[in-house]
């Protein structure tokens, strides 16, 4: 699902205002806090990409978001 | 609810620093104490989530709900009365119906919503139309259950964007950021078809069926005209064809009288538009150009980049909504003044005066023939709105270009060390309204003229000198030894560069951003 991955990465990059990639982790990114994760999920919602709510706490990286999106 | 994400989109929409109350439901406390965590806000926007405000009543009891609402309304009322200097906007309530009820059960939601609305209107607090937005967008799109359960955010991204735009509109209205003039095309804009080819019978304009979309569009534009927006036409047509349609077509809503300038010719549109700006004596950035033809729009965008050129809807059945969007985005207004209501008429009367001017022998003769009557005085409560408007809109004859809101003017009215002067002018043709303003700060033995401005429509009447004299006389009677005045240059006010010098003021200090003058009394 190449297209989906690229969309997710571009949305995250825009919200964080800096480029991210497959390997970016929340703990290693200064500007990424829980508010930002909220914004990311909101933006993904808008695109019809639904991250299951119950997994919110387990999100630690860009890869997690991509995996959770794919499961849908 | 959590409004941190809304805060971010609002900040982007307004372009100003915004701050949100922390925690949940701390707004009541903040309004009671008027303490916003140490911030001095320029405006307060209260966005309420209906469902949370009123609670999930299992057995709806109007008396109980009313009690809750009245408590909130009392807080809002007290705040708005005690703090006229901090404009407060409160959202309308949208109460979603979630309980499962039989068809015939009474519905409390609408009663709650309308009670809330009427109370706000009575208090005099302007309303943010959140409920209307939710319904127009569709609650499914506006709200997000997912975001609510995840982080107590009631709205979807689209919902937040719409709220941010509404806040931005209220902010622009507060700041007087309103365009002045609509420039309209005719063919396929105010009617369907081309008048030069289809003729009076052939153009699409009627009260029912397809032609009605253009008629409804015209109705909304007429609303704007009635609210002080100037209407002009720029159309590539023979003048006779255009005028025939405007005058004779039975389903035209807008008639010749509604327009201050009609340019139906074969000149390039940017040339016509530039002339309109010159004739009306307003900046190009005060014009909004509406034309169905993308080529015409491009040419104006390229030649006159300051003119606002919105895209035209491809689906003309949305023309009425398009007009409403344009009004919200470019012509937001909080309150209308008498000057607004009379705008078009004012310009027409001015055109009449200009005709006389052309025929007069000299300026003195012309001015004398006008039989002008001037009233200069300090402001009272009824002048506050117009005074603020003058500071926000006047660009050319404006010595310092300081912009003030109504609450700023209120504070000056109440303050012992400020005097706000206003002048009204009328002549034998009619009244110009309140057209000249000065704000004077009083110190021990010095008066400082913070603001001195005059509406461009009364330039050349020489009333500014008399107005200044009145103020100087008052300063003498108040035993001030001297007056300090400033000229702050801007791209638009070079016309007043030597005003102070010409009126007996000597230069004190000359810096690049401002020149200070002094006059001994």
Q: What are the SSEs and their pairings?
A:
The complex is a heterodimer of chains A (72) and B (521).
Chain A: H1 2-16, H2 34-46, H3 62-71
Helix pairs in contact in A: 1-2, 1-3
Chain B: H1 4-14, H2 27-33, E1 44-46, H3 50-54, H4 62-82, E2 88-91, H5 108-123, E3 127-128, H6 130-137, H7 139-142, H8 145-151, H9 157-174, E4 181-184, H10 195-202, H11 212-226, E5 230-236, H12 239-248, E6 261-265, H13 269-280, E7 287-290, H14 294-303, H15 319-330, H16 338-341, H17 343-359, H18 363-370, E8 373-378, H19 384-393, H20 406-414, E9 418-427, E10 430-442, E11 446-454, H21 463-477, E12 482-487, H22 499-502, E13 506-510, E14 515-520
Parallel strand pairs in B: 1-2, 2-3, 4-5, 4-7, 5-6, 11-12
Antiparallel strand pairs in B: 8-9, 9-10, 10-11, 12-14, 13-14
Helix pairs in contact in B: 1-9, 4-5, 6-9, 10-12, 11-15, 19-20
Q: What does this protein structure show overall?
A:
The complex is a heterodimer of chains A (72) and B (521). Chain A has a single domain, classed as Orthogonal Bundle (Non-ribosomal Peptide Synthetase Peptidyl Carrier Protein, Chain A), CATH 1.10.1200. Helices cover 53% and strands 0% of the residues of chain A. Chain A contains three helices and no strands. Chain B folds into three domains: 4-174, Rossmann fold, CATH 3.40.50.1110; 181-330, HAD superfamily/HAD-like (Rossmann fold); 371-520, Gcn5-related N-acetyltransferase (GNAT) (Aminopeptidase). Chain B has 22 helices and 14 strands. Chain B has helices at 4-14, 27-33, 50-54, 62-82, 108-123, 130-137, 139-142, 145-151, 157-174, 195-202, 212-226, 239-248, 269-280, 294-303, 319-330, 338-341, 343-359, 363-370, 384-393, 406-414, 463-477, 499-502; strands spanning 44-46, 88-91, 127-128, 181-184, 230-236, 261-265, 287-290, 373-378, 418-427, 430-442, 446-454, 482-487, 506-510, 515-520. In chain B, a hairpin with a 3-residue loop joins strand 10 (430-442) and strand 11 (446-454). In chain B, helix 1 packs across helix 9 and helix 11 runs parallel beside helix 15. The longest helix of chain B has 21 residues, at 62-82. The mean pLDDT of chain B is 91. Chain A binds chain B through residues 35, 38-39, 41-43, 45-46, 50, 53, 56, and chain B through 4-5, 8, 144, 146-147, 149-151, 153, 156-158, 160.
């Amino acid at each position: 699902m190449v297209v989906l991955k690229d969309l997710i990465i571009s949305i995250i990059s825009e919200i964080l205002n800096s480029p991210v990639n497959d390997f970016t982790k929340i703990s290693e990114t200064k500007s990424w806090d829980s508010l930002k994760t909220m914004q990311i999920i909101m933006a993904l919602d808008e695109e019809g990409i639904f991250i299951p709510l119950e997994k919110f706490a387990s999100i630690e990286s860009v890869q997690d978001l991509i995996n959770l999106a794919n499961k849908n | 609810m959590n409004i941190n994400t809304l805060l971010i989109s609002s900040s982007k929409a307004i372009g100003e620093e915004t701050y949100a109350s922390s925690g949940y439901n701390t707004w009541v406390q903040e309004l009671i104490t008027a303490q916003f965590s140490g911030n001095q806000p320029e405006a307060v926007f209260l966005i309420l989530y209906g469902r949370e405000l009123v609670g999930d009543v299992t057995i709806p009891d109007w008396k109980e709900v009313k009690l809750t609402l009245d408590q909130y309304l009392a807080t809002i009322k007290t705040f708005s009365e005690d703090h006229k200097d901090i404009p407060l906007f409160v959202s309308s309530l949208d109460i979603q119906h979630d309980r499962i009820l039989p068809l015939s059960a009474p519905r409390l939601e609408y009663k709650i919503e309308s009670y809330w609305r009427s109370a706000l209107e009575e208090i005099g607090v302007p309303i943010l139309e959140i409920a209307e937005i939710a319904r127009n967008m569709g609650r499914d799109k506006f709200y997000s259950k997912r975001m609510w359960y995840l982080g107590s955010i009631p709205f979807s991204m689209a919902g937040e964007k719409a709220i941010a735009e509404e806040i931005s509109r209220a902010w622009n209205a507060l700041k007087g950021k309103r365009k002045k003039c609509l420039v309209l095309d005719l063919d396929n804009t105010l009617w369907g078809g081309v008048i030069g080819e289809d003729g009076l019978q052939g153009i699409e304009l009627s009260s029912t069926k397809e032609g009605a979309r253009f008629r409804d569009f015209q109705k909304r534009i007429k609303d704007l005209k009635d609210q002080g927006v100037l209407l002009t036409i720029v159309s590539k047509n023979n003048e006779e064809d255009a005028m025939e349609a405007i005058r004779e077509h039975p389903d035209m809503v807008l008639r010749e009288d509604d327009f201050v300038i009609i340019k139906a010719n074969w000149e390039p549109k940017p040339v016509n538009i530039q002339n309109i700006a010159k004739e009306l004596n307003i900046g190009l950035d005060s014009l909004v150009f509406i034309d169905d033809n993308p080529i015409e729009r491009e040419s104006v965008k390229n030649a006159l980049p300051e003119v606002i050129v919105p895209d035209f809807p491809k689906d003309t059945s949305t023309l009425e909504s398009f007009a409403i969007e344009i009004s919200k985005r470019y012509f937001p207004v909080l309150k209308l003044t008498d000057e607004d209501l009379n705008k078009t008429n004012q310009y027409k009367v001015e055109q009449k005066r200009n005709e006389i001017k052309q025929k007069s022998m000299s300026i003195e003769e012309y001015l004398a023939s006008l039989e002008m009557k001037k009233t200069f005085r300090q402001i009272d409560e009824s002048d506050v709105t117009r005074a603020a408007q003058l500071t926000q809109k006047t660009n050319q004859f404006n010595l310092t270009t300081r912009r003030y809101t109504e609450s700023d003017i209120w504070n000056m009215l109440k303050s012992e060390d400020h005097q706000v002067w206003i002048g009204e002018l009328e002549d034998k043709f009619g009244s110009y309204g309140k057209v000249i303003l000065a704000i004077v700060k009083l110190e021990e033995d010095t008066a400082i003229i913070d603001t001195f401005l005059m509406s461009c429509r009364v330039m050349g009447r020489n009333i500014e000198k008399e107005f200044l004299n009145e103020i100087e006389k008052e300063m003498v009677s108040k035993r001030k030894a001297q007056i300090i005045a400033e000229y702050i240059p801007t791209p638009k006010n070079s016309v007043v560069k030597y005003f102070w010098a010409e009126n007996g003021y000597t230069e004190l200090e000359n810096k690049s951003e401002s020149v200070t003058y002094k006059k001994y009394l």
